[in-house]
């Protein structure tokens, strides 16, 4: 059972470089999310998507972009990496069944350092 | 907006001690409440949840009761084990299950 798969697990970037964090899920979930977790802090929502072709900003979207061309994939793009983007990034997905508030399924995370 | 407040950590206990981690929330409507656990080097995973007032969520010996009158969802376990050492996050989702809000997390260390 693959669930939510994130790649890479670790990455070091130089200031100004760009990269894409990949996220894919095989559970046919409509909802997908990107969070960042700073040391000693909770999770902050970057972007989310309620279905293919639909994305929306979360709490901390600046410096990031996303796309959702398929139900399975939800990549996160950093265009000009900055030290403030050093963090652990988690992708998550959630099913949508009527009005039920379903749980989140998380990937194992990407640890990103910008130096 | 919606928010979640948790007790500050870290919390250090001896094995078989009683655990309480406090969580209170602010939300409009009828949120669902969750406890997630993050073991070292892993992503978060759901520990338990409650979807309406007075519901009790339970799993692996952990329990939490949805108290609407006190807007709380405190996590308890009667006898902790070393394997319970992790970071615990209280969270809520709005009525439509679209937006999740997480607390800052509480690190628990259990000593043998």
Characteristics of this structure?
heterodimer; A: 115 residues; mainly beta; 7-stranded mixed β-sheet; 4-stranded antiparallel β-sheet; 49% strand; globular; B: 112 residues; 6-stranded mixed β-sheet; 0% helix; 51% strand
In short:
The complex is a heterodimer of chains A (115) and B (112). Chain A has 115 residues and is mainly β.
Unreliably modeled segments of chain A: none
What global shape of chain A is seen? globular
Number of strands of chain B: 12
The SS-based structural class of chain A is mainly beta
The N- and C-terminal alpha carbons of chain A lie at a distance of: 35 Å
Distinct helical segment count of chain B: 0
Structure classification of chain B: mainly beta
What is the average of the pLDDT values of chain B? 92
Radius of gyration of chain A (Å): 14 Å
Largest interface, chains and sizes: A-B, 25 and 26 residues
In one word, what is the shape of chain B?
globular
Stretches with pLDDT under 50, minimum 5 residues of chain B: none
The amount of helix of chain B comes to under 10%
Give the ordered list of helices and strands of chain A: EEEEEEEEEEE
Structure in words:
The complex is a heterodimer of chains A (115) and B (112). Chain A is mostly beta strands and 115 residues long. Helices cover 0% and strands 49% of the residues of chain A. In chain A, the strands form two sheets. In chain A, strands 2, 4, 5, 6, 9, 10 and 11 form a seven-stranded mixed beta sheet that branches. In chain A, strands 1-3-8-7 form a four-stranded antiparallel beta sheet, with no helix packed on it. The model of chain A has no long low-confidence stretch (mean pLDDT 91). Chain B has 112 residues and is mainly beta. Chain B is 0% helix and 51% strand. Chain B contains no helices and twelve strands. In chain B, the strands form three sheets. In chain B, strands 2, 5, 6, 10, 11 and 12 form a six-stranded mixed beta sheet that branches. Chain B has a four-stranded antiparallel beta sheet with strand order 3-9-8-7, with no helix packed on it. In chain B, a hairpin with a 6-residue loop joins strand 10 and strand 11. The model of chain B has no long low-confidence stretch (mean pLDDT 92). The chains are: A mainly beta (115), B mainly beta (112). At the A-B interface, strand 4, strand 5 and strand 9 of A face strand 5 and strand 6 of B.
